[in-house]
Amino acid sequence: MNIIIKGCAEYILSEQRYKLTPGNIVWLFPGQEHQLTKTDSNFEMYVVVFKEDLFKKNQYLQEKYHMLSEQNPEGSFCRRVSLSSIEKLEKTCQSLCELNNKNILSPAYYYAGQAFGYKDNSPYLHSDPILLNAGLTYLMTVGWHIFLTEGAEEKNKALNPAVEKAIALLKAFPEEDFGLTDLAIKCGVSSSRLSRLFNEQIGSSIVDYKNKLKLEQFLDCIKQNPSFSISEACYMVGFGSYSQFYKIFKHSFGISPKAYFAD
């Protein structure tokens, strides 16, 4: 569940875009690929993550909550609710963060990686896990209730077919390392039109998007091959040099690769 507090951004899903502004609640599901783009300098949101095991409990299999257990349900899951409801959820999130003895600082990707991602069995240590889980359950049930009963569905624009095809090709064939001209031919548009549409709808250049995909592949490579060094993994996924990789990694995560993987 994403709770939008300040600023503007967009989520890109496989076939639609969610425009994010204060008052939006967004639910993202395990089977949905998504990318956050077009974040302005003021953008802030809370990202509340629930393990799938939670939704297997009997009380959440009833009709009201059953959809939360699905991998990729149909429909739009970005809705606008009252700012007073957003403030209630925000205060709960703030209270849960304040319960932890250790300060949680940005970049968020680093801490998400520590808690959930790049190493098997990476633990998230909290000073009072029972209290934390109670708060997360509250956020899940109240957030979903507000979403269903109060939420007004937003009009979300579909991606241009050429942009959608370009994204699909870049994800499906990373080894091809498509140039703009080759990609435009495969998408049936001119290079200039594809470049312009991609920037408008995704909020980044095709080169920057390709680098983001390479970073994701790098993290997957490290996870699947724990014996690999950082430099081995970066060359494995197609970065031309370590200095290029380092610059892109530092820009994306705010810290060096070595610090990211430090225990």
Automatic annotation (TrEMBL):
This is AraC family transcriptional regulator. SUPFAM superfamilies: Homeodomain-like (SSF46689), Regulatory protein AraC (SSF51215). InterPro entries: AraC-bd (IPR003313), Cro/C1-type_HTH (IPR001387), Homeodomain-like_sf (IPR009057), HTH-like (IPR037923), HTH_AraC (IPR018060), RmlC-like_jellyroll (IPR014710). Gene3D superfamilies: Homeodomain-like (1.10.10.60), Jelly Rolls (2.60.120.10). Pfam families: AraC_binding, HTH_18. Keywords: DNA-binding, Transcription, Transcription regulation. One of its GO terms (molecular function) is sequence-specific DNA binding. It comes from the Bacteria. The keyword DNA-binding applies. Residues 164-263 form the HTH araC/xylS-type domain. SMART domains: HTH_ARAC.
